[in-house]
Specification:
The protein is an alpha+beta fold. Helices cover 27% and strands 25% of the residues. It has 13 helices and 21 strands. A hairpin with a 4-residue loop joins strand 5 and strand 6. The longest helix is centred in the C-terminal third of the chain and has 16 residues. The chain binds flavin-adenine dinucleotide.
């Protein structure tokens, strides 16, 4: 199969790599490609919405899944959909929602693919209630290092199943997925937005509402300090029985890399303060389309260019419930004291562990935010990693571009089981990414 030389990277654009890209249209062509590459290295590349280096291998090959994007079956009695991995979340939702269903876990962008959702065991704003994407996967077909395709389910090869859910593409290429869907009465949610004056109030409101609302998410002004530390807006939402008329979504686009100088403490503080005041002090109930609620940032095409050509890092960690509030406070204090500008941070609750060896979730609180790529930010990210470790938390592989090998090993205790599966199914290390090498998951001696 012919390949093309491309410069590809993660959504944060700090990890660009020159790769040989293959774009098969059929699983059989993907299998031929894998067989032909048996002495090299390859990794799956879905929608490219991971932020760091998990879907690229510099000077190696990537298998683009974008043309493996068919819906193969929909069984309404069993409430399952079977599809190829390259279909995007937005396209799957456009299929499911008119039929009265939704994907069970929906990330903040509709440009991610189903393969990416499995490989990062993605969570949505309903993690407390419904867990992460992997919790709903019935089985998948995996293109293995020897070029064969194997159907994998929890009761057929439980270890390979657990290694592939959240396994960042390292066990092989997922070529078919069967996933259970969630009933959804309409295309809209009823959202309550509340202004939250500080971090303590956030935790009080989470405690009060996390078992009641189906969806919840907090937007935090990460530059606020002192008594205002952790102020923001909490959104709680439940499916709306009545839908909204299908409107034409307005789409803006960032046409070029913005000069980095425009992003500074002053401009970002002003934006965050405006957002905080947007929610009335007494709260407000609004109906929003599922698209607007799930994917607010998708309304601005190529928004990653706002951070300039140097790109940006995203940091996302989860800290366990016990000690969580003080862990999140320490992280926010470190961030606001650093002055490193970041647009709104996201604070969410998480319900429990995922099914994968490298699944990110644990019961507690997860904090996510962006930092423009500057020299001082790398040191800040190291300090945030240390705080996360002090509180027994972990950093999300989908967002990572700088985590240390030692930190990673401490955060992911099932790494040994994960490696044992890789040794069994891919002893020569065909499937490898730059992230896997950086974190010592694969590489010399492994
Ligand atoms: C704006 C935005 C909001 C986000 N919000 C959330 C959120 O709310 N919750 C959350 O959990 N994540 C979130 N993410 C992260 C995103 O959902 C994950 O990174 C997801 O994995 C991206 O899917 P992708 O198809 O773009 O995968 P890629 O970025 O292309 O790849 C990610 C990983 O999946 C592997 N992979 C992809 N396809 C396959 C396949 N067919 N077989 C095997 N491995 C494969 C790749 O090798 C790589 O390791 C967000 C990202 C963005 C940009």
């Amino acid at each position: 199969m012919r390949c093309k030389q491309l410069e590809l990277g993660g959504w944060g654009r700090t990890t660009m790599a020159s790769v040989s890209a293959y774009r098969p249209e059929r699983v059989s062509a993907a299998a031929d490609t894998v067989r032909a590459l048996d002495a090299g290295s390859v990794i799956a590349y879905g929608g490219g919405r991971s932020y760091g280096d998990s879907a690229v291998r510099a000077d190696g090959a990537v298998l683009l899944t974008e043309r493996l994007d068919r819906i193969l079956a929909f069984d309404e009695d069993e409430q399952v959909v079977v599809c190829e991995p390259g279909i995007r979340v937005a396209d799957m939702q456009a299929f499911l929602i008119p039929r009265g269903y939704s994907l069970p876990a929906v990330p903040g962008t509709g440009f991610a693919t189903i393969g990416g959702l499995v490989a990062n065991d993605v969570h949505g704003k309903n993690h407390d209630r419904h867990g992460s994407f992997g919790d709903h996967v019935c089985w998948f077909d995996l293109l293995m290092a020897d070029g064969t395709v194997k159907q994998v389910a929890p009761d057929s090869d439980g270890a390979l199943f657990a290694a592939t859910i959240g396994g960042v593409g390292l066990t092989g290429i997922i070529v078919t997925v069967c996933v259970k869907v969630l009933p959804m009465p309409s295309n809209a949610v009823q959202v309550t937005e509340m202004r939250v004056r500080d971090l303590d109030e956030f935790f009080e409101l989470f405690a009060e509402h996390r078992d009641r609302a189906m969806y919840s998410v907090g937007w935090i002004d990460a530059l606020a300090r002192g008594a205002k530390l952790g102020r923001g807006v909490l959104e709680l939402a439940d499916p709306s029985p009545a839908g909204l008329p299908a409107g034409k979504a307005r789409k803006l686009r960032v046409p070029f890399d913005m000069p980095g100088i425009l992003l500074n403490r002053l401009t970002i503080s002003a934006f965050n303060a405006l957002y905080y005041r947007r929610a009335p002090a007494g709260g407000e109930v609004r109906q929003k389309s599922l698209t607007e609620f799930f994917h607010p940032l998708d309304a601005i095409g190529d928004w990653n260019r706002l951070y300039g050509s140097a790109g940006f890092h995203q940091f996302q960690c989860v800290v366990p419930e016990e000690g969580g509030p003080s862990g999140i406070r320490r992280l926010l204090e470190e961030i606001s004291a650093s002055g490193s500008a970041s647009f709104l941070a996201v604070l969410k609750t998480m319900g429990g562990e995922g099914r994968g060896h490298l699944s990110f979730p644990m019961r507690g609180y997860t904090l996510a935010l962006d930092f423009p790529a500057r020299a001082a930010v790398t040191d800040l990210l190291r300090r945030l990693e240390d705080i996360t470790l002090d509180y027994g938390g972990r950093i999300y592989l989908a967002k990572d571009s700088v985590m240390s090998e030692a930190g990673f090993a401490r955060m992911y205790p099932a790494l040994r089981e994960f490696r044992a599966v890789l040794d069994r199914v891919d002893p020569n290390g065909l499937f490898v990414s730059d992230q896997a090498l950086r974190l010592g998951i694969r590489g010399p001696g492994r």
